[in-house]
Every structure is written in structure tokens, then in C-alpha cells.
Amino acid sequence: MGVILKAENISKQYRLGLVGTGTITHDLNRFWHRIRGKEDPYLKIGAENDRTSKATEEYVWALQDINFEVNEGEVLGIIGKNGAGKSTLLKLLSRVTSPTTGVIKTKGRIASLLEVGTGFHPELTGRENIFLNGAILGMRKSEIAAKLDEIVSFSGCEKYVDTPVKRYSSGMRVRLAFAVAAHLEPDILVIDEVLAVGDAEFQKKAIGKMQDISQGEGRTVLFVSHNMAAVQDLCTRVIILEHGGLVFNGTTSEGVNRYLNSNKISTGFLEFEKKDESAKAQVSRFEVLNANRAISSSFKSGEQMIFKTSVRVNAEIRNPVFSLRISDLNNVNVVTWRSNDFVNEPIPKFQKTNFEISINSLDLYLLDGIYNISIGLADGKEIVEMKIKFYQIEISPSKPNSDFHSITKEKSSKSLIYSLAKWNVDVKGDL
Amino acid sequence: MKDDDKWLYEISAKHKLIDFNFKEVWQYRDLLMLFVKRDIVTVYKQTILGPLWYFIQPLFTSVIFTLVFNNMGNISTGGVPPFLFNLAGITAWNYFKTCLTGTSNTFRANQNIFGKVYFPRVIMPISIIISNLLKFGIQLLILIGFYIYYANKGFDLMPNGNMTLFPVYILMMAMIGLGTGMIISSFTTKYRDLKVLLGFAVQLLMYLSAVPYPIAEAQRKFPPFVADFVVYNPLTQIIEGFRYMILGVGTFTWNGFLYTLLISFVLFFVGLLTFNRTEKSFIDTV
Q1: Do A102 and B13 touch (CB under 8 A)?
Q2: Residues of chain B with pLDDT > 90: what percent?
Q3: pLDDT the model gives residue A285
Q4: A94, A381, B146, B261: which has the fewest C-beta neighbours closer than 10 Å?
Q5: pTM of the predicted model, to two decimals?
Q6: What is the CATH number of domain A3-9+63-260?
Q7: DSSP-assigned beta bridge partners for residue A394
């Protein structure tokens, strides 16, 4: 399988602010440079695309020096935060606009799906719109006619196919539009976030269809999404964009982890500034220790972890409830420990003093990945102190031991944790 | 890479001055026809009179023109019934006008589609030219109806051999309308001024294109420089030539005809060139 698409030094420059004052002078200056065979004077300037800092330059680079290749049959995920340049890249790939510098070379027909239902006309019927939309996306009339029944049944809009689209619900419109797009047969399909539409059932159907397209039919797909689950399901490789630059190009699981974990794993202990005295209590220090009582933030699955929290109490707490929660990067709570879960209350009444609470995990087989830790302290039902996802730990696959092989996320079919169990298989005799 | 040279196409900032991809346009011919169909079908959906509206506009305009210019203003139409004279002029003018105003808004009106998906942009203005041609065909029917009516009433209408030039006149109107429209459309992506200008410029241009009067009247009554403008306006040549061809009034010269043909081609190619340059990245500035 060879390279089907190649991007070389792609950059795209945009102008900030209003197009208006100065446009003509800049245009004329550009023209004056061009006829003398000189370089565009405005290409030399331009700030990195960081939305949060105040603009200092008039021009900005939405993309800067992007290089990548896509092989035939590959499903490439493009991920990045809002404003990282994903959509700009897709626009360039789908020839909606052209790059300021650089070149994209392709060996196949590209069809892009930057939005479903592009060119739907509200007055036309569903059937007429299927033809129109299909043709806009690059299909021949005969191709559409041949697939009409398939498209209609995939969309689930059989009943309404001769009704003007303006009478459709928004969900139906989207279904119809996706159905048309899914039956495109380009060499390279470019998709942007379209999966974020429709109900759960239709989303599942859509992802299934995309899997068929990429795996069954061996089509090359470029897929932009914020939905990491979908990216993980579909993509064979991902690239990450950040501030208009390409910062990662590699395997899906690595890329997704890196993207979700852009604020790095915590190291060492955390100490918190002294708050005002009016708070009943305050967490002053947090650390995670391993079995050897050394501070650590990366563990093997199943390894003992000791979560140590120091609390400064300013006023008496009669019913102290301390809790610690471990959640994964998809915000799924994996485990929560609460001090009042136990019959024999482990925490006595809090006096005005300093406390140290240690939670020692026993037999917790987290799967490999990054996890967030949140802690909370309450007096009965009144929350006194809360720190949400303030500390991150990394779990790597467990060492195989005498009981089992190494457990990894992939092997455990994406379940949340592993738990030891006693197995017994009886042979009940021949049939 | 051993097969580095087999790229299907490249997307880059550089482009040649003349860079038309006719093959690609041909590949999208189905889309062209579907756009034409969309334009025709959707305009009068949910109207009671439907396509009858195509008749009403030129008829009413002709009546008003006849009242103002011929009854009140006393403009000579050379023995042809003034109403028929005006109807002929307006029918021809309308085709040009709809082509120009329709295409001059291509980039702005379609920025939603253009911003999301690629197809040869030129499909859009061409589809407008074709759907307007169909409307023109319908309007031609009323003209023919009145033509037969007046011929039966004994008016001396002199259709002549120039009729064979009819397709060329259509082509010239389409080319001027499309060419100018594409130029304006390209500039309005950045500078909106032209759009404001266009609305009344077309209106005024009609009066300087010999629509409600023959060239001879202009030469007799206008100040010389205005008369010259009217004569050298390629649109005048088309309107006058169109009337000459079916009614036998006015002036026709081969020089004027060839001059108009040349201007049409020039405008068309300049338009195509500007449009092609603009389509590559207009979405950033529109």
C-alpha cells in the first residue's frame, strides 16, 4: 500500500480583525512586490495561533509547516483542541481554500463531509435532495440512482421521501444527509465531526457504516473529531495539532492518551496555599506513595498505592466524611472510597488540629492509562473541602505473575477494572 | 518514492494564469443540470400563478414603457407597434439582466456550499445562465404570440435573413452577462461596493442601451457624447440587432455586430480568468 496523500509544508495565514481599512493598500503592495518578482511582504510576519494571548500581529498562522503522509486504506484521525487548525486543514484538503504556502498532493478523488446536508434545498423533496446533494458531493446521477433505495433505507426516511425537506425534523434531515454521504465512493473521504448528530441509535449505525467503509471497503479516511471513543474505534493512526503546528504523529492509543493528558501527569506531592481561616478545614498536602513509602505517580496495575492527605482543621467537624475518587479520562468514576462506608467509623471527630488521612489500596487492578484523583471532605452533608481531578496518576500494565498474564486495556475489551476471580471449569462428560 | 510523479492533482498556492479544467466541468455536468432544475422548480413553489409570473413582468413593463415613452414622450418606433417594439427590447434585455444579476452574486450567495465542499465553482454561474435561458424561452413565447397578433392585424413586420444570427445574439448576451457577472462576483468577495453599485447601474444602463428607443432617435436627440456611448455600448448593438432581425426596424451593421462579438469574447474570458483566480481562496475574505 503506497502513499495516497501527501502534505508538504502546508501553512495557512489569516488576517485578524476587519477586512476593510488597509486591505487595498496591502493588496496593492502585494501586487507591486509580485510584478517585481519578489516575495509577498506579509508572509514574513504573523504570530503563532494562540487564541488566549492578546493579538500582537495583524496576521496569524492558522497552520504552520504541516507535513504528513497518508497511506492507502488508512484511517487517519486528526485531533486537537478548538482552534488548533483542524478545520483549516480539512478545508485545505477538500479544496475549499488554498494554502498560503506548501502543497498537498493526492492520488485519489477526495470527497469531503465537512457538514452534512450541504446544499439541501428546503423546497425540494427528499428524493430530489438526495440527487442534488449527491451531485454536489461529486457523484454521477446514474450512481445515485443505482444507490437510491439503499440510501433511503439507510436513512430510515422511506415514508417522507416525497415530502419537501423543509417539513423534516432536524434529525431526519441529518439522517438523510448522512445516508447520502455514506454512500459516496471517493478514494479519500474527509469527515469532520458529523457523528455528533442524531440519536444514539443512529450514531451507532453511522460509526458502524464508517467502520465498514474504512475496513471492509479499504477506503482511505481522514477523520476529525473530539469524540475520543469514536477516534479510538475507527482510526489506525492519529495526528495531533496544537496552535497550528503538528505535534504528534503516531498510533491511536498513544495519541489519544497524549491528547487527553495534555496537562501532564502529576509528579511529587502537592502543597496547597493557606486559605482564609473562615473555612472549616483545608487540604494542605497530598501525595501518593508506593509500597516502599516513596512518592510516586506511576504504578503497575495491582500495585499497592497509598493516598496520603493532610488536612488542617480550623473548626470542629462532628461528622467528618472523607472521600477519594479515581476517575478515568472519559470522566467515568472507576472507584470511590468513603470513610463512612465502613461500619466501624475509622475517622473520629475532628478537633482543631492537623490530620493525616491515608488510604491504602488493596487489590485494585486498574487498567493501563491515566487516571484523575478527586478528594472531598464533608461534615455530615455539608461539603467542607473539595478538590476535583487535581492529581493524575498513570497505571501501566501489570507484570505477569503466577496467577495471570499481563492485563492491558486492549486485552480486557475496554472494561474499567480487572478483578481477581476464582475460576473453575468442570468437564461434565462426553455428549 | 518511485511513483512520486503519478499524483492526480496538487493543491497549492501557486497557480498558472490560465488554468481552466474543462474536463472537470464536464465530469460535473449532472450537477449542472440539477442546479438548473433546482432554480426552475423552486422559484415558484407555493405560488398560485407559478410560471405565469414569467409572463407578467415583461408585459407590464412593456405597457408602462409604451405609455411613458411612446404615448407621452413621442418616441418614433419606425412604424412598428410601440408595444411590440418595447416587448422585444425588454425580452432581450431581461435575459442579459437576469444573467448579470444572477451571476454577480455567485460567491456571496453560495458561500455556505462553497465553504464546505469542492466542485468546479464555475458550474454555479453557468447553471444560472442556462436556467435563465429557459425563462427567456418562455418569455419569447409571449413575444411570438403578440408578434402573430400584430402581423394578423396587418402591420408591416419584416423578419429577415438576420434571423439566422439569433443563436449568436443569445450567445453574446450570455457571454457579456456571465463575464461581467463573474468579474463583479470576484471583486465583491473583498469589496462590497460593487454590489451596491450594481443594483442601480443595471437600471440606468438599460436606458443607455437603446431598450425603449431605437439608435436613430438617440443620435438625433442625445448630446453627441451620450449618443456615442449608446452606439458603442455592445448591449445597444444586441438589442437593436435583435429588433432589426424580427421587426425590420433600426440599424444593423456588420461592423457593429463583429465589434459586439469581440467585446463579448473579451469580457467572457476576462470574467473566467478573474473568477478562476478568486475561487481558490475567496472563502477567506468573503
Answers
A1: yes
A2: 34
A3: 87
A4: A381
A5: 0.71
A6: 3.40.50.300
A7: A298, A370
